[in-house]
Amino acid sequence: MTLNDETRQQLIEAAVQARRWAYVHYSKYAVGAALLTASGLVYDGVNIENAAYPTTICAERVAVFKAVSEGERSFQAIAVVTENGGSPCGSCRQVLAEFGLDTLVIVADQDGKVTFEVTVGELLPGAFTPGYLKSEF
Ligand code: THU
Fold first, then answer.
1. Longest Cα pair distance anywhere in the chain, in angstroms?
2. 44: CB partners within 8 A, 6+ apart
3. Number of CB atoms found within 10 A of residue 28's CB
4. 45 near 82, Cβ under 8 Å?
5. Which atom of ligand 1 is nearest to the CA of 49?
6. Could you read off the pLDDT tens digit of each residue along the chain, which spans 137 residues?
7. Closest Cα to residue 47, out of 65, 31, 69, 68?
């Protein structure tokens, strides 16, 4: 999946803006995500922490769940913004892999500077995908 420069910048900017709403009472590590659907819509997400720490959910999964809960299942790219260009966690990689290994993952810092850009398949080699459970959809 390739993105043009303007679309890439818009997606990163959406993640930068969303990041302001991160609920990071405990870690203070705010994450913003912006997910671009195949149909051209953008769903953003932030990490939402909880006093019962494991109940916390990451920004990437919030964005994916918002999109899927509105009927979207095909994605072009996701931008993820943190203060230092931190990489998506294993759970988020798995959730992204459910919806396609070709989705582009753009990781950037809080100034929007891209740290790296890879596909979900590159982030999660040997992923367990829906294909293992069903011969066809
Ligand atoms: N976090 C994310 O939002 N995405 C990731 O992929 C990595 C971690 C959040 C979870 C938690 O609120 C904070 O960053 C520190 O782990």
1. 44
2. 14, 15, 17, 18, 32, 33, 34, 35, 63, 66
3. 9
4. no
5. 12
6. 589 999 999 999 999 999 999 999 999 999 999 999 999 999 999 999 999 999 999 999 999 999 999 999 999 999 999 999 999 999 999 999 999 999 999 999 999 999 999 999 999 999 999 999 976 55
7. 31
> Which atom of ligand 1 is found nearest the CA of 48?
12
Question: What predicted TM-score, i.e. pTM, was given to this entire model?
Answer: 0.96
- Mutational pocket test of ligand 1: of 78, 83, 89, 91, the residue with most ligand atoms within 8 Å of the beta carbon: 89
Annotated active-site residue in 6, 13, 49, 60: 60
* DSSP E strand boundaries for 1-128: 32-37, 42-46, 75-81, 104-108, 114-119
* CB-facing half-sphere around the CA of 27: CA atoms within 13 A: 18
Query: What are the beta bridge partners of residue 37?
Result: 75
